[in-house]
Design goal:
alpha/beta, 283 residues, Pantoate--beta-alanine Ligase, Chain: A,domain 2, Rossmann fold, three-stranded antiparallel beta sheet, globular, 2 domains, binds pantoate
Amino acid sequence: MSHPPILRGLDELRATIAPWQAKGARIGVVPTMGALHDGHLSLVELAKKDCDHVIVTIFVNPMQFNNPDDLESYPRTEHSDAGKLERFDIDVLYVPDGPQMYPEGFASTVTVQGLTDVLCGAHRPGHFDGVATVVAKLFLQTAATDAYFGEKDFQQLQIVRRMARDLDIPIKVHGCPTIREIDGLAMSSRNLLLSDRARVTAPRLYEEMERVAQEIATGTPFSQLQAPAMKRLEDAGYTEVEYFEMRANDDLSLLDAPTRPARLLAAAWLAGVRLIDNIAIEP
Ligand code: PAF
């Protein structure tokens, strides 16, 4: 097995996909920022099952980082990423550079209103503009018919769906289940930044969400559960819980009881690393 063909330029990408498009092939794209883990690989596996051709993209998108240190410290592991993709026999690993994605004079931003104001959007100003802009570009550049995103970034998934719908981009956006470590910690490229000590504490976030979900299932209003859950996380070693909320799946509005399909969503800092997670709450 050898590394997948790596393309860095848009012209060569377009030349590669033109015959696929001419045949009406199903083209799957898995957009990533690299540092691939089993969560990403599960998306590639699903794309391979559905599609005639699969493109994985790696681009650490500066436009979605609102903190220069965070951008600087984001793991960059292209060689090992390419190695992890070998067994999937994908068609293209597209790795554009900054000027390829944002050439001199680049002046356009895709903003999805409403869904971006809450949760991560409230704590990371401009983050989702960066995500929506780069994902719109990747959808158009790859001409994919299907795109695969993890439910781990649930807000991102809903924003991408809305963006594609609003802009009439003919692509099906698939939301795929969160993949977890054996102790429940949601897989994330940021887990690589956790110290050994912080890694031991990290699964408490998921444990707390599961505990609260069980209490919601017994009929307890979320408003009675929220503050104690946040306190328990801080007692466990999380330095700041940015949010711990229950929201409706479709429009991300706040809920106190799961009167419609909902998610429990949380973001919290642990030893300098920001972790997010969410779980489904059925009505
Ligand atoms: O989820 C990610 O890794 C990124 O936000 C994405 C979708 C690749 C856009 O840069």
